[in-house]
Amino acid sequence: MMDKQSEGRTIFGGVDAHKDLHVAAVVDDKDRVIAGESFPTTRHGYRLMLEWMRSFGDLRRAGIEATGTHGAAGLRHFRKAGVQVLEVTGPDKHGRRARGKSGTFDAEAAAHAAFSGKRTVTPKSRDGMIGALRVLRAVRKTAVQARRIALQMMGNTIVAAPDAMRDSIRHMTRMPLIRTLAAWRPDMTACRISLKSLARRYLELHGEIADLDKMIQAIVDELAPGLVAQDAIGYHSAAQLLIAAGANPDRLKSEASFAALCGVSPIPASSGKINRHRLNRGGDRAANSALHIIADGRSKREALRCVKRCIAREVYRLIRARYDQINQTQIVA
Question: Alpha helices, DSSP H only, in the chain?
Answer without folding.
Answer: 43-54, 72-80, 93-99, 103-116, 128-159, 163-169, 174-183, 190-223, 225-228, 235-245, 255-261, 285-296, 300-332
